[in-house]
Design a protein that fits this description.
This protein has a 5-stranded antiparallel sheet, with no helix packed on it. It has a two-stranded antiparallel ribbon with strand order 6-7. Strand 3 and strand 4 form a beta hairpin. About 35% of the residues lie in helices and about 20% in strands. The chain is α+β, with helices and mostly antiparallel strands. Helix 1 packs across helix 4 (about 125-139).
């Protein structure tokens, strides 16, 4: 599954798989507990494929950040989680994306990215998303 079908909903923890569209919004399924939720079209929703991380010279798509973490961890979960302390998270993020813009990428952003990475990996969606992104760039 590509990241176009994975969303983050403002005010709700975790990530959701886009299941269906309704008249006034859509239905999503939580990657954490597989519960279905109906979301209004007015809710703040972010599609993971549309998210990028600021660096000093450009914006790096989220899938590329996930790929860097995946390669650093040899396909495993990140050594640092969203619950780690501030310095540990910042050092880890610097190792993964050395030129990230420290003024525009906040600790909360780094925590979300690490949490999302681990959620996608645990849900067996990350490898497929990475493969889909690789295919898209070679076409």
């Amino acid at each position: 599954m590509a990241l176009e079908k994975i969303i983050a909903i403002g005010g709700k923890p975790g990530l959701f798989k886009l299941i269906a569209q309704t008249k006034g919004g859509f239905v999503g399924e939580s990657l954490v507990d597989q519960k279905k939720v109906t979301v209004s079209i007015r809710a703040k929703v972010s599609v993971l494929s549309e998210i990028a991380v600021y660096t000093l010279d450009k914006e790096v798509p989220l899938i590329d950040v996930f790929r860097a973490v995946y390669e650093k961890e040899s396909g495993g979960a990140s050594a640092v989680t969203h619950k780690s302390d501030k310095l540990e998270i910042e050092e880890y993020f610097f190792a993964v994306l050395p030129n990230y813009d420290e003024d525009r990428v906040y600790l909360s952003d780094m925590k979300k990215i690490l949490n999302w990475y681990n959620l996608l990996l645990k849900s067996d969606l990350l490898v497929e998303a990475l493969e889909n992104a690789s295919k898209a760039t070679t076409e």
